[in-house]
Amino acid sequence: MDKQGKIYVAGHRGMVGSAIVRALQKEGYQNIVTRSHREVDLCSQDGVDAFFAQEKPDYVFLAAAKVGGIMANQEALADFMYENMMLEMNVIHAAWKNGCKKLLFLGSSCIYPRMAPQPMPENCLLTSELEKTNEAYALAKISGLKYCEFLNRQYGTDYISAMPTNLYGPNDNYHPLHSHVLPALIRRFHEAKEQGRKEVVCWGSGEPLREFLYVDDLADACVFLMNHYSGDETVNVGTGKELTIRELTQLVAKVIGYEGEILWDPSKPDGTPRKLLDVSKLKKLGWTYKTELEDGIRLAYEDFLHNPMRAER
Question: How much is the pLDDT for 308?
Fold first, then answer.
């Protein structure tokens, strides 16, 4: 990317978008364009078209999305599909119409089949059935990355997509019901410690395996890919390491200093049994993660403590 080029970061107030802005600034990119939801509703085609016609960004990082954990996905299936489909199609299409040089679309590891081979390679996409608990979100994300691929094939654009593993870090959502597993655990153990509770009940069996990536590492990878990768196939972004949810809860409890008992509620859903990304493609390109999980959880907990309003979302 040209250091003087105009870069639009869609979703700059979210966890991923704000990290991308930090990464760009760290690398010396100064011509960064952002808009809040109040300024531009990305679900409005007219609003997005007007914004792109006025600003004409050279590069786009599409990090905006409607996101949530298992419960949020199950309660709002139609909303998750509609809002994500609309905003990503509007942004990608407007970028193409206005001559955007390069665009990076951010998906999610949930796009891969429920029983995908492990670790999950990029080419296992659409080879079998999706996980039902996040099917609506996954279908929307698959549509976005396929639209980028089809624009490349039909019109010769340079639009790429990256599929991150489970993310956490500064500016996360700590809502007690609608957050993802790691921030939910941070809040739950923090409150248990503050209230002196002797036990904490966690969802499911604790047996599913998960991989976690610190969000600033993802942002660094996104800038790297914009400078070093072109191609139709998506690129997995992760650590290549996994642990059980049970092990994760123990690690979060350790970082927070909670010493009570951890119980499990098997009546609650586990989600996909395993979601480990094959990150060999990204490693061959020359990028690897930097932040180990325990260190990242400490940084995320510091963010939670210093930003109490995060817990009210």
Answer: 59
Q: 287: number of CA atoms within 13 Å, CB side?
A: 23
Beta carbons within 10 angstroms of residue 268's beta carbon: 14
Active-site residue numbers?
A: 137
Task: Give the Cβ contact number of residue 23 at 10 Å.
Answer: 22
Query: How much is the pLDDT for 313?
Result: 43
Instruction: Note the pLDDT of residue 269.
Output: 81
pTM of the model: 0.93
Q: Are 163 and 107 in contact (CB under 8 A)?
A: yes
Amino acid at 223: V
The residue count of the chain comes to 313
> Taking the chain (313 residues) in consecutive chunks of 10 residues, what is each chunk's mean pLDDT?
97 96 97 97 97 98 82 75 96 98 94 93 96 89 97 98 96 80 93 96 93 98 98 97 97 97 92 89 98 98 80 47
